[in-house]
Amino acid sequence: MRIAVDAMGGDHAPQAIVEGVMLAKKDFPMIEFQLYGKESEIRKYVTDETNVKIIHTDEKIYSEDEPVKAIRKKKQASMVLAAQAVKEGRADAIFSAGNTGALLAAGLFIIGRIKGVDRPGLMSTLPVMTSDAGFDMLDLGANAENKPEHLVQYAILGSFYASHVRGIKNPRIGLLNNGTEETKGSELTKKTYELLKAESDLNFIGNVEARELLNGVADVVVTDGFTGNAVLKTIEGTALNLMAVLKDSILDAGLKGKLGALLLKDSLRGLKGKMDYAKYGGAVLFGLKAPVIKTHGATGPEAVAQTIRQIYTMLDSHMVEELVAQFEEKKKQEGAFSINEKLQKKVDK
Amino acid sequence: MRIAVDAMGGDHAPQAIVEGVMLAKKDFPMIEFQLYGKESEIRKYVTDETNVKIIHTDEKIYSEDEPVKAIRKKKQASMVLAAQAVKEGRADAIFSAGNTGALLAAGLFIIGRIKGVDRPGLMSTLPVMTSDAGFDMLDLGANAENKPEHLVQYAILGSFYASHVRGIKNPRIGLLNNGTEETKGSELTKKTYELLKAESDLNFIGNVEARELLNGVADVVVTDGFTGNAVLKTIEGTALNLMAVLKDSILDAGLKGKLGALLLKDSLRGLKGKMDYAKYGGAVLFGLKAPVIKTHGATGPEAVAQTIRQIYTMLDSHMVEELVAQFEEKKKQEGAFSINEKLQKKVDK
Fold first, then answer.
1. Closest Cβ–Cβ partner in B214, B232, B257 for A241
2. Structural domain of B137
3. What is residue A256's predicted lDDT score, i.e. its pLDDT?
4. Contact state of A270 with B249 under an 8 Å Cβ cutoff
5. From the list B144, B184, B241, which residue is nearest A214 (CB)?
6. Residue A191 C-alpha, separation from nearest chain B C-alpha, in angstroms
7. What is the pLDDT of residue B213?
8. pTM across the whole model
9. Where in or outside the cell is it found (chains A, B) (predicted)?
10. Does the pLDDT at position B338 exceed 90?
11. Which residues pair with B286 in a beta bridge?
């Protein structure tokens, strides 16, 4: 098992990235880590060289670079070289905390889509307040627009992830909608509902509303990239703002506030922990020929190690290979079905 | 000034509604309140009869009724009679805490749209964490789908509301999008961006992201009804879930938790108060020939009184009349423009 690591991506790169890899190495001595980036910088943080390869390059992609242009022009950037390694079979997965758009572009244009997945989506496991389970949601914004067929593909992808990586049997798939009734929604959600209902392999539980997401109403929630992006950012913004208001009002309460906060330290920390979804690993650009994983730019070593664990599980469960087979089978069935339809039409005449 | 009140709408009707009206009467003795509903029930809570008319009816619309059907079939329902009064000029505005869909239908089919507003939208003033100002957002779900022209109409409506009712000079209009750059977004948001930029009367500040909404990034935020509905429900769901987790973990902390919570009582109450947007009044179904206002089914007397204050300000500022004039002017200009365009085309030939 070989993971290509963009050691130069993220706000605290390469230190946080390499330190995270060193942490992960303790649990996963069998993984080969390929660290792409400035060798002299990387080497400072390598405490154990076994199974570690450093591939030196001076070039890197910055967070402010225009994604597609960066991927096309900066052929020697650490992220591009790491993606090339996956493409050419020298690595099995890629991890980066760098420019999200550039990683999406690298995934699409260098590594490539699974046949049958039209528009790979961005997926994260988000926190459920009532349990430790979490739920997977996609697309969180890889696309600004989606068709019903894409959402069905997301349901298949999400279902595989929930079962293979999170160990959930027969994951419950929900469609994000503006009401729970079957007749509710936009043209997109109404058509998607019909298609999902017809997918006998999926445990489709119907429409779910945004108010119920953090209650664990479904194990996998599918939506278009525009809505998913808005919902994810709303969760983050609401949580951050509430925590900030609480903190301010505790500080304003003076000594009483300090004492109260001290007594509630564990409770307040627990609240923060509940919302922190880095514990589930990074975001997956899902539907590509290999795992492509992105973490926040501010990611620290622990979150990097957690993400390596996630990638290990994805590779170890052979999820991508199974997905390739599944989508090929689906394609065949649809092909057979459309041949049958054509025959039927001839008969009808 | 005459307000038609659906006294039978809401979980605690007619008690909470009539008590709220009685509260509001103290500040607004000049308003005539028309209370539609079961007279014997309503009369129990009327403590001051001056300027109060009770219009008796036995019929009412339930929260589980199918909206359009209910409006068409239940001709004598309290909500329908109240809407009829507005249509026929016997009242100036309508207020209900009942079935939202039915009120939308009553507004559209009985009271009718302002000429030039294609798809009235649902608008609420939502809380800003860093100040007491709040921001107006629409459409929150009156429509499942919107065109760019609708969003421009929402910007005009929202701007009028922010200036006339909330007293904000030159309100900042933001377009909800999945990134702040002009080139970001779906076909809908890209086209809307262009149109909003061309509206010289609006203070359009560009795209805003969902993460920044509660920071007060704009005074008015426009979006399509599907996204708006998802964002509103996500804010509510996230806030409710966080408060519940905090409460549970305080209870789990035993005596220490109880003591800490006691010390932080004001801070925790302040947090709840920050999120409670009933203080800004009810949701406006906006773009109709008269104010149509909806509050939560669980609304209590104080929130009803607050909503009466909001309706008073809407009526007192003659906002709807000005909007009618504004949209007529807009229509004329576009008409003149299209005549010019036609002439130009003739010249070109």
1. B214
2. 123-279
3. 84
4. yes
5. B241
6. 13
7. 96
8. 0.92
9. Cytoplasm
10. no
11. B121
